[in-house]
Amino acid sequence: MRVLVVGGGGREHALCWALSASPLCDALFCAPGNPGIAEVATCLPVSAEDIAGLVALAQKEKIDFVVVGPEGPLVAGLVDALSAVGIKAFGPSAKAARLEGSKAFMKDFFARHNIPTAAYGRFTDPAAAKAFIAQKGAPIVVKADGLAAGKGVIICQSVAEGHAAIDTIMTDKAFGAAGNEVVVEEFLEGEEASFFALVDGSTALPLAAAQDHKAVGDGDTGPNTGGMGAYSPTPAVDDAMAARIMKDIITPTVNGLKAEGTPFKGVLFAGIMITKDGPKTLEFNVRFGDPECEVLMTRLKSDLLPALVAAVDGQLKNFDLRWHDETALVVIMAANGYPGTPEKGTVIGGLADAAKIEHVNVFHAGTKAEARDGKPVIVANGGRVLAVTATGKTVSDAQARAYQGVDAIIWPGGFCRRDIGWRAVAREKKA
Fold first, then answer.
1. Long-range own/partner contacts, residues 53-60 (CB < 8 A, 24 or more apart)
2. 430 CB-side CA count, 13 A
3. Which of 169, 184, 215, 401 has its CA 20 to 30 A from that of 298?
4. pLDDT band at 224, cuts 50/70/90?
């Protein structure tokens, strides 16, 4: 098969790395890709948001199968546009992608199908949103309705913080049109987990669970980011919890979307809070998580390509996937200034040394290749720049290896959290 992956981040590097190992993959392309992806695929300079350009590219290169990485093109209807010209694509239709594209749509869908989630209100009027916050009290969570690159969620510890969040999102338009509407919801206490399932319209095949670290600073402090690290498997989701998440959350979602005439094909990514009352859904994403994809692909023993094709073809019922028992852990290295305005153009050294460390993989997320003083260099070109991934028998082992990889990289223009996997490491020490 001739395969095209759409996107240019760490998730897409991990997907390309996994797909390049498939004996079914004759030629692998990525648009737009990045310097890390260029080592395993042919990168083509078409933006992930350029729907018409991507369709034309797929036709020109005689692509058999497209894997869409980011949420933007899914919500914009790339899969529909490819299907219209007879090209198979992994990912949901634009209508099914509203689960991620609109938090208001998602919350109303949960209400219609009795899917456990936080109590909420949705508002287009800032004054009404502020009145709701004053009535409910704090802590409370304010979310921009639309896509905001993982940053449109503000956890507010006081009513005043809640009102300030409404101003930031709705009045100052910090996330642009994504903040024309907000969802305000109760703050859920518990342990967070990311749960993934492949879906073929009718059948859901559970993948592995992971635990992401959203806050920018050690000890889960500071503003939320797109994710500063993750590990899989997570002790927060044992077999019994996974079965419960499938029964109470994933299966009703798949059945509900099918019943409403918008069957879902692709990967469902449920952000779960495991509360004292059981798992509750924080949000749904309609693509592989980033940085969770890096650890899932590292742990996946089976060939990824036939699994994705089976999801598109409606053939998951008789499908099975195998996983490595080892823990995979990823540490995100971000550019100074992130999650605000990241510093771009800083030179990154030591990548080859990090890649030589046993059981360590460095996925590129926001990099580009440049010539400086006549020599080729890799420079930072985004907020989250590198995803240093390692495996180990325990979370502690994987963590130690990942930070060994981080420490081999010479990049004064970047930073990382130093405590990825801290909850599981603390559990291991107690045991």
1. 54/4, 54/6, 54/78, 54/81, 54/82, 55/81, 55/82, 55/85, 55/87, 57/4, 57/31, 58/4, 58/82, 58/85, 58/87, 59/85, 59/87
2. 6
3. 215
4. confident
Residues in the chain: 431
Which residue in 310, 323, 316, 302 sits closest to 391, CA to CA?
A: 323
User: Which domains are present in the chain?
Assistant: 2-91 (3.40.50.20), 125-180 (3.30.1490.20), 191-318 (3.30.470.20), 327-430 (3.90.600.10)
Coil, strand or helix at 215? strand
Rounded Cα distance, 425 and 431, in Å: 10
Contacts of 171 (CB under 8 A, 6+ apart): 126
pLDDT of 151 higher than 80: no
CA neighbor of 266 nearest in space, from 5, 68, 22? 68
Strands 182-186 and 120-123: what pairing? antiparallel
% of the chain with per-residue pLDDT over 90: 90
What integer is the mean pLDDT of 383-402?
98
Q: How far, in Å, CA of 391 to CA of 399, rounded?
A: 8
Q: What is the pLDDT of residue 150?
A: 65
Task: Report strand pairing: 65-68 vs 88-90.
Answer: parallel
- Give the whole-angstrom CA distance, residue 412 versus residue 135: 47
Task: Give the C-alpha separation, 370 to 178, whole Å.
Answer: 33
Q: What single-letter amino acid sits at 294?
A: E
Query: For residue 284, which of 37, 65, 103 has the smallest C-alpha distance?
Result: 103
363, 297 Cβ separation under 8 angstroms:
no
The string of pLDDT tens digits covering residues 171-203 is: 999 898 888 999 899 999 999 999 999 999 999
Residues 6+ apart with CB under 8 A from 135: none
Distance CA 181, CA 228 (A): 27
> Could you tell me the CA-to-CA distances from 152 to 179, 211, 237, 264, 320 in Å, in that order?
8, 19, 26, 24, 35
What are the tens digits of pLDDT across the range 314-357? 999 989 999 999 999 999 999 999 999 999 999 999 999 999 99
What does the buried/exposed string (b/e) look like for 172-209 if buried means 16 or more CB atoms within 10 Å of the residue's CB?
eebbeebbebbbbbbebeeebbbbbbbbbbebbbbbbb
Of 293, 253, 288, the C-alpha closest to 267 is: 288
Amino acid at 165: A
